[in-house]
Amino acid sequence: MSSVTFEKATRVFTGQDRPAVNQLDLHVEDGEFLVLVGPSGCGKSTSLRMLAGLEEVDEGRLLIGEQDVTDLPPKARDIAMVFQNYALYPHMTVAENMGFALKIAGTNKSDISKRVAEAAAMLDITEYLERKPKALSGGQRQRVAMGRAIVRSPRVFLMDEPLSNLDAKLRVQTRTQIAQLQRRLGTTTVYVTHDQVEAMTMGDRVAVLKDGVLQQCAAPREMYDRPANLFVAGFLGSPSMNLMELPVVDGGVRFGDSVVPVGRDALADADAKTVTLGVRPENLVVSSTGLQVEVDVVEELGADAYVYGRADVDGTEQTIVARADWRKPPAKGETIHLAPEDPSGLHVFATESGRRLS
Ligand code: ATP
User: Fold this and answer.
1) Which CDD domains does the UniProt entry name for this protein (predicted)?
2) Nearest-atom index, ligand 1, CA of 21
3) How far away, in angstroms, is 270 Cα from ligand 1 center?
4) How much is the ipTM here?
5) Domains of the chain and CATH, by start
6) DSSP H or E segment with residue 211
7) Parallel, antiparallel, or unpaired: how do β-strands 188-193 and 156-160 relate?
8) CA Rg value for the chain
9) pLDDT, tens digit (0-9, with 9 covering 90-100), for 160-203
10) What does the pLDDT look like over 211-257, one tens digit per residue?
11) Are 148 and 79 in contact (CB under 8 A)?
């Protein structure tokens, strides 16, 4: 087990106008589960591949524990990677697949069998050990891929979208199992996904990347409650946070026919006529005053209902989403007023720079 450190790690591909990963500074604690998340092309896989030694580092360096691994070949890094496609050898049995790396490393047969048996028991795949991968379901293959990483007892696990080939239900089950297993083993893990729900539910901390640049790294709750900028605010949360550019008035920002109080410091800091107010759907409630909204769609999800409607936000028509009481949601076509329920749950951003003000 070991910590992982990216120090200004940068990767520039020839022919690209900007680095795929740009001056990445990130420290993953020993035993921590860190999730790298962001939209397609943001540099998640490239970051992971640099750590694995599968991609060159053009600038900066990478450490595992105290050791500088920047120029070490992949084999010498003592890491195990779980890929999206599992990369199992089709001609080998499950047991052979799981034990292969140990065999190459010269581990004796009885040790290999013991470690494979232990990992198989942990993953509940003992009964498949003599099967070939093609005789397994997607979920079982996924576990074999995990098992292959576990038997090596590496310093670090690297996982690149390991659940993306599973159906929705299995993905939910498996994400819990992987998170539990990681905590039981205590192995430092860097996990890549584009799925924000996976990131929020699995990670001790989450690092959000955009265009190769780290936007924020924080515990899931903190990131949800205090996103550092407009990008993170819009990226995490489903349905997304409502982001509205609103005029600054005395004491707050104009919100329909009312004024929403936001911190004076934030507005002084903004030094602008408008700010972007962020309100999560669960913090918007039907009220007698506030923003006037024409209800277009009411989405009833059982425990929750979401209302999607159109509002005139300071002269621009915008879609607004609010969580409604599922027992008595507004009706389609109705005109309602929405107002923030909890002023302390409001987010204020500078519109130009996107930076959080309060
Ligand atoms: P995805 O979720 O789609 O896998 P990602 O966040 O993992 O995306 P990367 O695969 O790291 O993103 O890619 C980051 C950027 O680098 C993208 O613009 C991509 O096109 C580019 N890139 C990745 N690999 C190469 C390569 N071998 N040659 C040139 N450009 C590359």
Assistant:
1) ABC_MalK_N
2) 14
3) 35
4) 0.97
5) 4-231 (3.40.50.300), 240-349 (2.40.50.140)
6) none
7) parallel
8) 24
9) 998 988 888 889 988 998 999 999 999 999 999 999 999 999 99
10) 999 999 999 999 999 999 999 999 999 899 999 999 998 878 999 99
11) no
